[in-house]
Protein backbone atom coordinates (compact mmCIF):
# COMPACT_ATOMS: atom_id res chain seq x y z
CA UNK A 1 0.00 0.00 0.00
CA UNK A 2 1.23 3.49 -0.87
CA UNK A 3 -0.01 6.74 0.66
CA UNK A 4 -0.58 9.24 -2.15
CA UNK A 5 -1.55 12.88 -2.42
CA UNK A 6 -5.21 13.78 -2.57
CA UNK A 7 -8.61 12.71 -1.33
CA UNK A 8 -12.00 11.93 -2.87
CA UNK A 9 -11.01 12.60 -6.50
CA UNK A 10 -7.96 10.31 -6.66
CA UNK A 11 -9.89 7.12 -7.46
CA UNK A 12 -10.68 6.59 -11.15
CA UNK A 13 -13.95 8.13 -12.31
CA UNK A 14 -14.61 10.45 -9.36
CA UNK A 15 -14.99 14.22 -9.58
CA UNK A 16 -15.68 16.97 -7.07
CA UNK A 17 -16.71 20.61 -6.87
CA UNK A 18 -17.41 23.25 -4.26
CA UNK A 19 -18.94 26.70 -4.11
CA UNK A 20 -20.02 29.63 -1.96
CA UNK A 21 -23.77 29.16 -1.55
CA UNK A 22 -24.18 31.46 1.48
CA UNK A 23 -26.13 28.81 3.39
CA UNK A 24 -24.99 30.39 6.66
CA UNK A 25 -21.37 31.44 6.18
CA UNK A 26 -20.84 34.59 4.13
CA UNK A 27 -17.11 34.53 3.45
CA UNK A 28 -16.20 30.99 2.43
CA UNK A 29 -17.22 27.94 0.42
CA UNK A 30 -20.00 25.99 2.11
CA UNK A 31 -21.20 23.39 -0.39
CA UNK A 32 -19.39 20.38 -1.84
CA UNK A 33 -20.27 17.84 -4.50
CA UNK A 34 -18.72 14.39 -5.03
CA UNK A 35 -19.74 12.55 -8.21
CA UNK A 36 -18.92 9.26 -9.91
CA UNK A 37 -19.07 8.92 -13.67
CA UNK A 38 -20.83 5.58 -13.19
CA UNK A 39 -23.19 4.26 -10.49
CA UNK A 40 -21.51 2.85 -7.38
CA UNK A 41 -22.21 0.15 -4.86
CA UNK A 42 -22.36 1.92 -1.52
CA UNK A 43 -22.03 1.31 2.18
CA UNK A 44 -22.76 3.56 5.10
CA UNK A 45 -22.88 3.90 8.85
CA UNK A 46 -25.01 6.44 10.66
CA UNK A 47 -25.56 8.03 14.04
CA UNK A 48 -27.14 5.95 16.79
CA UNK A 49 -28.69 9.14 18.19
CA UNK A 50 -32.48 8.67 18.21
CA UNK A 51 -32.78 12.25 16.96
CA UNK A 52 -31.58 11.78 13.38
CA UNK A 53 -31.16 14.61 10.89
CA UNK A 54 -33.29 14.55 7.74
CA UNK A 55 -30.20 13.88 5.62
CA UNK A 56 -29.30 10.85 7.74
CA UNK A 57 -32.77 9.42 7.15
CA UNK A 58 -32.49 10.14 3.41
CA UNK A 59 -29.07 8.51 3.03
CA UNK A 60 -29.96 5.51 5.15
CA UNK A 61 -32.86 4.75 2.79
CA UNK A 62 -30.45 4.65 -0.15
CA UNK A 63 -27.88 2.44 1.58
CA UNK A 64 -30.49 0.04 2.97
CA UNK A 65 -32.32 -0.23 -0.37
CA UNK A 66 -29.39 -1.89 -2.10
CA UNK A 67 -29.70 0.56 -4.99
CA UNK A 68 -26.63 2.29 -6.44
CA UNK A 69 -25.34 5.67 -5.34
CA UNK A 70 -23.73 8.08 -7.79
CA UNK A 71 -23.36 11.42 -6.03
CA UNK A 72 -23.39 13.15 -2.68
CA UNK A 73 -24.05 16.83 -2.02
CA UNK A 74 -22.88 18.31 1.29
CA UNK A 75 -23.55 21.66 2.91
CA UNK A 76 -22.02 23.21 6.00
CA UNK A 77 -23.48 25.81 8.33
CA UNK A 78 -26.94 24.30 8.90
CA UNK A 79 -27.42 20.69 10.03
CA UNK A 80 -30.96 20.08 8.73
CA UNK A 81 -31.71 18.30 12.01
CA UNK A 82 -34.96 18.65 13.99
CA UNK A 83 -36.57 20.21 10.89
CA UNK A 84 -39.58 17.94 10.26
CA UNK A 85 -41.09 17.38 6.82
CA UNK A 86 -39.58 20.60 5.50
CA UNK A 87 -36.11 19.25 6.20
CA UNK A 88 -36.79 16.01 4.36
CA UNK A 89 -38.25 17.98 1.44
CA UNK A 90 -34.97 19.94 1.28
CA UNK A 91 -33.09 16.66 0.82
CA UNK A 92 -35.39 15.66 -2.04
CA UNK A 93 -35.12 19.07 -3.70
CA UNK A 94 -31.32 18.89 -3.56
CA UNK A 95 -31.26 15.39 -5.06
CA UNK A 96 -33.69 16.39 -7.80
CA UNK A 97 -31.53 19.38 -8.65
CA UNK A 98 -28.69 16.92 -9.34
CA UNK A 99 -31.00 14.84 -11.52
CA UNK A 100 -31.97 17.93 -13.51
CA UNK A 101 -28.37 19.08 -13.94
CA UNK A 102 -26.66 15.76 -14.67
CA UNK A 103 -29.41 13.35 -15.63
CA UNK A 104 -28.73 10.88 -12.81
CA UNK A 105 -31.59 9.30 -10.88
CA UNK A 106 -32.33 11.50 -7.87
CA UNK A 107 -32.80 8.32 -5.81
CA UNK A 108 -29.06 7.67 -6.24
CA UNK A 109 -28.05 11.06 -4.81
CA UNK A 110 -27.05 11.22 -1.15
CA UNK A 111 -27.10 14.45 0.82
CA UNK A 112 -25.34 15.49 4.00
CA UNK A 113 -25.44 18.55 6.23
CA UNK A 114 -23.47 19.86 9.17
CA UNK A 115 -23.88 22.92 11.36
CA UNK A 116 -26.55 24.41 13.59
CA UNK A 117 -29.42 22.14 14.64
CA UNK A 118 -33.01 23.38 14.32
CA UNK A 119 -32.64 25.79 11.40
CA UNK A 120 -34.32 25.21 8.04
CA UNK A 121 -32.14 25.05 4.96
CA UNK A 122 -32.66 27.69 2.24
CA UNK A 123 -33.70 25.37 -0.59
CA UNK A 124 -33.23 28.01 -3.29
CA UNK A 125 -29.57 28.40 -2.30
CA UNK A 126 -29.07 24.62 -2.24
CA UNK A 127 -30.51 24.24 -5.74
CA UNK A 128 -28.47 27.16 -7.05
CA UNK A 129 -25.36 25.64 -5.50
CA UNK A 130 -26.00 22.30 -7.20
CA UNK A 131 -26.49 24.00 -10.56
CA UNK A 132 -23.25 25.93 -10.14
CA UNK A 133 -21.20 22.93 -9.01
CA UNK A 134 -22.57 20.63 -11.73
CA UNK A 135 -20.78 22.83 -14.26
CA UNK A 136 -17.44 22.79 -12.44
CA UNK A 137 -17.06 19.11 -11.47
CA UNK A 138 -13.42 18.15 -11.90
CA UNK A 139 -11.27 15.10 -11.25
CA UNK A 140 -8.19 17.02 -10.13
CA UNK A 141 -6.60 16.64 -6.71
CA UNK A 142 -7.24 20.33 -6.12
CA UNK A 143 -10.99 19.91 -6.66
CA UNK A 144 -11.06 17.21 -4.02
CA UNK A 145 -9.08 19.33 -1.58
CA UNK A 146 -11.40 22.29 -2.13
CA UNK A 147 -14.38 20.03 -1.41
CA UNK A 148 -12.80 18.91 1.87
CA UNK A 149 -12.49 22.57 2.90
CA UNK A 150 -16.08 23.42 1.99
CA UNK A 151 -17.53 20.89 4.48
CA UNK A 152 -15.67 22.34 7.48
CA UNK A 153 -17.51 24.08 10.34
CA UNK A 154 -15.40 24.76 13.45
CA UNK A 155 -12.59 22.63 12.01
CA UNK A 156 -9.29 24.48 11.82
CA UNK A 157 -7.83 22.25 9.08
CA UNK A 158 -9.28 20.20 6.25
CA UNK A 159 -8.96 16.42 6.47
CA UNK A 160 -8.23 14.20 3.46
CA UNK A 161 -6.11 11.18 2.60
CA UNK A 162 -5.63 8.68 -0.24
CA UNK A 163 -3.87 5.36 -0.78
CA UNK A 164 -3.23 3.00 -3.67
CA UNK A 165 -2.70 -0.75 -3.63
CA UNK A 166 -2.85 -3.71 -6.02
CA UNK A 167 -5.37 -6.50 -6.36
CA UNK A 168 -4.49 -9.27 -8.81
CA UNK A 169 -2.23 -6.96 -10.77
CA UNK A 170 -4.74 -4.11 -10.95
CA UNK A 171 -4.01 -0.78 -9.28
CA UNK A 172 -6.83 0.21 -6.91
CA UNK A 173 -7.21 3.59 -5.24
CA UNK A 174 -9.11 4.66 -2.14
CA UNK A 175 -9.51 8.26 -0.99
CA UNK A 176 -11.50 10.08 1.64
CA UNK A 177 -12.36 13.32 3.34
CA UNK A 178 -14.03 14.08 6.65
CA UNK A 179 -15.01 16.93 8.89
CA UNK A 180 -15.37 17.06 12.62
CA UNK A 181 -14.16 19.18 15.48
CA UNK A 182 -16.91 19.30 18.09
CA UNK A 183 -19.96 17.24 19.05
CA UNK A 184 -17.79 14.18 18.58
CA UNK A 185 -18.50 10.96 20.44
CA UNK A 186 -19.52 8.61 17.63
CA UNK A 187 -21.54 5.48 18.13
CA UNK A 188 -21.41 4.48 14.49
CA UNK A 189 -18.67 6.23 12.61
CA UNK A 190 -17.82 9.91 12.52
CA UNK A 191 -19.31 13.30 12.01
CA UNK A 192 -19.20 13.43 8.23
CA UNK A 193 -16.88 11.23 6.18
CA UNK A 194 -16.92 10.34 2.50
CA UNK A 195 -14.82 7.59 0.96
CA UNK A 196 -14.40 6.91 -2.75
CA UNK A 197 -12.76 3.91 -4.36
CA UNK A 198 -12.51 2.37 -7.80
CA UNK A 199 -12.45 -1.22 -6.52
CA UNK A 200 -15.00 -3.72 -7.84
CA UNK A 201 -16.58 -5.34 -4.77
CA UNK A 202 -19.93 -6.78 -3.79
CA UNK A 203 -22.11 -4.44 -1.77
CA UNK A 204 -22.52 -6.85 1.16
CA UNK A 205 -18.76 -7.23 1.55
CA UNK A 206 -18.21 -3.49 1.24
CA UNK A 207 -20.74 -2.88 4.01
CA UNK A 208 -19.19 -5.54 6.22
CA UNK A 209 -15.70 -4.10 5.77
CA UNK A 210 -16.86 -0.55 6.47
CA UNK A 211 -18.83 -1.54 9.58
CA UNK A 212 -15.93 -3.52 11.04
CA UNK A 213 -13.31 -0.87 10.34
CA UNK A 214 -15.47 1.94 11.71
CA UNK A 215 -15.76 0.09 15.02
CA UNK A 216 -12.01 0.35 15.64
CA UNK A 217 -11.38 3.79 14.12
CA UNK A 218 -14.11 6.43 14.09
CA UNK A 219 -15.94 4.80 16.99
CA UNK A 220 -12.78 5.10 19.08
CA UNK A 221 -12.57 8.90 19.08
CA UNK A 222 -14.18 11.45 21.35
CA UNK A 223 -13.89 15.19 21.78
CA UNK A 224 -16.71 16.20 24.10
CA UNK A 225 -18.95 13.19 24.74
CA UNK A 226 -21.75 14.42 22.47
CA UNK A 227 -23.03 12.03 19.78
CA UNK A 228 -24.19 14.12 16.82
CA UNK A 229 -27.59 13.97 15.13
CA UNK A 230 -25.82 13.98 11.75
CA UNK A 231 -23.05 11.37 11.99
CA UNK A 232 -22.68 9.87 8.52
CA UNK A 233 -20.03 7.85 6.73
CA UNK A 234 -20.58 6.92 3.09
CA UNK A 235 -18.31 4.75 0.97
CA UNK A 236 -18.82 4.61 -2.82
CA UNK A 237 -17.14 1.97 -4.99
CA UNK A 238 -17.49 2.33 -8.78
CA UNK A 239 -15.45 -0.66 -10.00
CA UNK A 240 -13.44 1.33 -12.54
CA UNK A 241 -10.14 -0.23 -11.40
CA UNK A 242 -11.13 -3.24 -13.48
CA UNK A 243 -10.23 -5.90 -10.92
CA UNK A 244 -12.19 -9.13 -10.73
CA UNK A 245 -15.08 -8.32 -8.41
CA UNK A 246 -14.30 -9.15 -4.79
CA UNK A 247 -16.98 -11.63 -3.75
CA UNK A 248 -15.32 -13.55 -0.92
CA UNK A 249 -13.29 -12.84 2.21
CA UNK A 250 -10.05 -13.77 0.51
CA UNK A 251 -6.63 -12.10 0.32
CA UNK A 252 -8.02 -9.39 -1.99
CA UNK A 253 -10.67 -8.55 0.57
CA UNK A 254 -8.08 -8.33 3.36
CA UNK A 255 -5.86 -6.10 1.22
CA UNK A 256 -8.76 -3.72 0.67
CA UNK A 257 -9.79 -3.85 4.32
CA UNK A 258 -6.26 -2.96 5.45
CA UNK A 259 -6.28 0.06 3.15
CA UNK A 260 -9.71 1.05 4.42
CA UNK A 261 -8.47 0.81 8.00
CA UNK A 262 -5.52 3.08 7.26
CA UNK A 263 -7.73 5.74 5.65
CA UNK A 264 -10.34 5.65 8.42
CA UNK A 265 -7.78 5.67 11.25
CA UNK A 266 -5.93 8.59 9.63
CA UNK A 267 -9.11 10.66 9.30
CA UNK A 268 -10.32 9.74 12.79
CA UNK A 269 -7.06 10.81 14.42
CA UNK A 270 -7.08 14.04 12.41
CA UNK A 271 -10.52 14.84 13.82
CA UNK A 272 -9.54 14.02 17.38
CA UNK A 273 -6.45 16.23 17.12
CA UNK A 274 -8.57 19.05 15.70
CA UNK A 275 -11.13 18.98 18.50
CA UNK A 276 -12.63 22.36 19.28
CA UNK A 277 -10.05 24.42 21.14
CA UNK A 278 -7.63 21.48 21.32
CA UNK A 279 -3.88 21.86 21.62
CA UNK A 280 -2.97 18.16 21.88
CA UNK A 281 -3.92 14.76 20.51
CA UNK A 282 -4.67 12.57 23.53
CA UNK A 283 -4.29 8.82 22.96
CA UNK A 284 -5.13 5.95 25.31
CA UNK A 285 -3.76 2.49 24.57
CA UNK A 286 -4.95 -0.41 26.70
CA UNK A 287 -3.17 -3.76 26.32
CA UNK A 288 -3.54 -7.22 27.85
CA UNK A 289 -7.17 -6.72 28.81
CA UNK A 290 -9.51 -9.68 29.36
CA UNK A 291 -11.63 -8.96 26.27
CA UNK A 292 -11.60 -6.65 23.26
CA UNK A 293 -14.76 -5.00 24.56
CA UNK A 294 -13.10 -4.28 27.92
CA UNK A 295 -10.08 -2.78 26.17
CA UNK A 296 -12.30 -0.51 24.05
CA UNK A 297 -14.42 0.50 27.04
CA UNK A 298 -11.39 1.35 29.16
CA UNK A 299 -9.52 3.30 26.50
CA UNK A 300 -12.60 5.33 25.54
CA UNK A 301 -13.29 6.12 29.20
CA UNK A 302 -9.78 7.49 29.64
CA UNK A 303 -9.90 9.87 26.66
CA UNK A 304 -13.53 10.81 27.38
CA UNK A 305 -13.03 12.00 30.95
CA UNK A 306 -13.12 15.78 31.30
CA UNK A 307 -10.76 15.56 34.26
CA UNK A 308 -8.31 13.48 32.23
CA UNK A 309 -8.57 15.89 29.30
CA UNK A 310 -7.91 18.84 31.61
CA UNK A 311 -4.87 17.08 33.06
CA UNK A 312 -3.48 16.55 29.55
CA UNK A 313 -4.00 20.26 28.82
CA UNK A 314 -2.26 21.27 32.04
CA UNK A 315 0.57 18.73 31.56
CA UNK A 316 -0.32 17.34 34.99
CA UNK A 317 0.77 13.72 35.54
CA UNK A 318 -2.18 13.12 37.87
CA UNK A 319 -2.57 9.42 37.08
CA UNK A 320 -5.45 9.08 39.56
CA UNK A 321 -7.77 10.78 37.08
CA UNK A 322 -7.12 8.14 34.45
CA UNK A 323 -7.50 5.26 36.89
CA UNK A 324 -10.73 6.80 38.17
CA UNK A 325 -12.14 6.96 34.63
CA UNK A 326 -11.23 3.30 34.12
CA UNK A 327 -12.96 2.42 37.37
CA UNK A 328 -16.34 3.85 36.40
CA UNK A 329 -16.17 2.69 32.78
CA UNK A 330 -18.16 -0.48 33.46
CA UNK A 331 -15.26 -2.84 32.75
CA UNK A 332 -14.33 -5.14 35.63
CA UNK A 333 -10.65 -5.48 36.57
CA UNK A 334 -8.30 -5.67 39.54
CA UNK A 335 -6.44 -2.41 40.11
CA UNK A 336 -3.59 -4.44 41.62
CA UNK A 337 -2.83 -5.80 38.14
CA UNK A 338 -2.63 -2.42 36.43
CA UNK A 339 0.48 -0.61 35.19
CA UNK A 340 0.11 2.93 33.81
CA UNK A 341 2.61 4.92 31.76
CA UNK A 342 2.79 8.32 30.04
CA UNK A 343 4.39 8.36 26.59
CA UNK A 344 5.26 10.85 23.86
CA UNK A 345 8.15 11.44 21.50
CA UNK A 346 9.96 12.90 24.53
CA UNK A 347 10.04 9.49 26.22
CA UNK A 348 8.14 7.09 28.46
CA UNK A 349 7.59 6.99 32.21
CA UNK A 350 5.74 4.58 34.50
CA UNK A 351 3.71 6.28 37.23
CA UNK A 352 1.57 3.46 38.67
CA UNK A 353 2.67 -0.16 39.17
CA UNK A 354 0.22 -2.92 40.12
CA UNK A 355 -1.81 -1.02 42.68
CA UNK A 356 0.98 1.19 43.95
CA UNK A 357 1.93 4.77 42.98
CA UNK A 358 5.55 5.23 41.98
CA UNK A 359 7.93 7.98 43.03
CA UNK A 360 8.44 9.16 39.45
CA UNK A 361 10.44 12.09 38.04
CA UNK A 362 7.92 14.95 37.80
CA UNK A 363 10.18 16.99 35.52
CA UNK A 364 10.48 14.09 33.08
CA UNK A 365 6.70 13.58 33.18
CA UNK A 366 6.19 17.27 32.42
CA UNK A 367 8.57 17.07 29.47
CA UNK A 368 6.65 14.07 28.09
CA UNK A 369 3.25 15.71 28.52
CA UNK A 370 4.26 18.97 26.82
CA UNK A 371 4.34 17.26 23.42
CA UNK A 372 1.55 17.67 20.84
CA UNK A 373 0.64 13.97 21.07
CA UNK A 374 0.45 12.34 24.51
CA UNK A 375 -0.33 8.66 25.13
CA UNK A 376 -1.62 7.08 28.32
CA UNK A 377 -0.45 3.45 28.08
CA UNK A 378 -2.16 0.93 30.35
CA UNK A 379 -1.16 -2.72 30.80
CA UNK A 380 -4.02 -4.64 32.45
CA UNK A 381 -2.11 -7.96 32.84
CA UNK A 382 -5.39 -9.88 32.58
CA UNK A 383 -5.53 -11.20 29.01
CA UNK A 384 -4.33 -10.52 25.48
CA UNK A 385 -6.89 -8.03 24.10
CA UNK A 386 -6.01 -4.44 23.24
CA UNK A 387 -7.56 -1.25 21.87
CA UNK A 388 -6.63 2.36 21.25
CA UNK A 389 -8.85 5.42 21.58
CA UNK A 390 -8.17 9.02 20.59
CA UNK A 391 -9.33 12.35 21.95
CA UNK A 392 -7.93 15.76 22.76
CA UNK A 393 -7.27 18.00 25.69
CA UNK A 394 -9.92 20.28 27.18
CA UNK A 395 -8.95 23.94 26.88
CA UNK A 396 -10.52 27.29 27.68
CA UNK A 397 -11.26 27.77 23.99
CA UNK A 398 -13.73 24.85 23.88
CA UNK A 399 -16.16 26.80 26.04
CA UNK A 400 -15.59 30.00 24.07
CA UNK A 401 -16.34 28.28 20.76
CA UNK A 402 -19.52 26.60 21.95
CA UNK A 403 -20.87 29.45 24.03
CA UNK A 404 -21.63 31.46 20.88
CA UNK A 405 -21.90 28.71 18.22
CA UNK A 406 -25.05 30.18 16.64
CA UNK A 407 -23.57 33.66 16.34
Automatic annotation (TrEMBL):
It comes from the Bacteria. The active site is at residue 190. Pfam families: ArgJ (PF01960). The keyword DNA-binding does not apply. Coiled coil: none annotated. Substrate binds at residues 153, 179, 190, 276, 402, 407. It is found in: Cytoplasm. GO terms for molecular function: L-glutamate N-acetyltransferase activity; L-glutamate N-acetyltransferase activity, acting on acetyl-L-ornithine as donor. One of its GO terms (biological process) is ornithine biosynthetic process. Its EC number is 2.3.1.35, 2.3.1.1. The record marks 114-115 as: Involved in the stabilization of negative charge on the oxyanion by the formation of the oxyanion hole. Pathway: Amino-acid biosynthesis; L-arginine biosynthesis; N(2)-acetyl-L-ornithine from L-glutamate: step 1/4; Amino-acid biosynthesis; L-arginine biosynthesis; L-ornithine and N-acetyl-L-glutamate from L-glutamate and N(2)-acetyl-L-ornithine (cyclic): step 1/1. Belongs to the ArgJ family. Catalyzes two activities which are involved in the cyclic version of arginine biosynthesis: the synthesis of N-acetylglutamate from glutamate and acetyl-CoA as the acetyl donor, and of ornithine by transacetylation between N(2)-acetylornithine and glutamate. Heterotetramer of two alpha and two beta chains. This is Arginine biosynthesis bifunctional protein ArgJ. It comes from Butyrivibrio hungatei.
Amino acid sequence: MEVIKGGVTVAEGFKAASCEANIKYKDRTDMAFVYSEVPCVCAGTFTSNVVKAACVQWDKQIVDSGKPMQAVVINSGIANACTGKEGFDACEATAKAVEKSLGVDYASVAVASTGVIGMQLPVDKLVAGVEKMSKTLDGSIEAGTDASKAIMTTDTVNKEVAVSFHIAGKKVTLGGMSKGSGMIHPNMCTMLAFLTTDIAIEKSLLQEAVSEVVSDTFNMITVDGDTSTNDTLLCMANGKAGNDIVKDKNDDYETFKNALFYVCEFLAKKMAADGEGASKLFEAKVVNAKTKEDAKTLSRAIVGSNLSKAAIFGCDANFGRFLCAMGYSGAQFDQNDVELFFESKAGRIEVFHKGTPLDFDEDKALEIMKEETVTVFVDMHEGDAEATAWGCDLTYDYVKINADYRS
